[in-house]
Amino acid sequence: MHMLGKVALVAAVTCSALSAGEALARDSERAPTAIRLSTAAVDFQDSAAVRSFYKRLENAAWKACDSQIPDLTLRREDVRCVKATIQQAVASLDKPLVTARHQSRSAQAYARGY
Fold first, then answer.
1. Is 9 exposed, middle or buried (0-12, 13-18, 19+ CB in 10 A)?
2. Torsion over CA: 43, 38, 34, 50 (sign)
3. DSSP string spanning 22-48?
4. 10 — phi, psi (to 5°)?
5. Are 57 and 86 in contact (CB under 8 A)?
């Protein structure tokens, strides 16, 4: 399916930035949010285009999930949020080269201990 000229919702995210007060209180859950990326100019049959799109996806996930609070526990939650966001986006796109890229990046991250 070609989505020329459309903006596709690629992932419903189960995280959002926390305010400092919420982070310190630790009694509130991260509210659901979503990221949107344009797929209009992405040729999902082209490896270079998929690499570029996947990098945009990673950046959008970090932007949505980064609490910007220097606390190790929150940082771990941020990383889990990013992983879940990207996984959900890849699954919802259902594009073979995006899935392959994700599997490759996930294996690299696992090898590094992330």
1. exposed
2. positive
3. HHHH--SPPPPEEEEEE-TT--TT-HH
4. -105, -15
5. yes
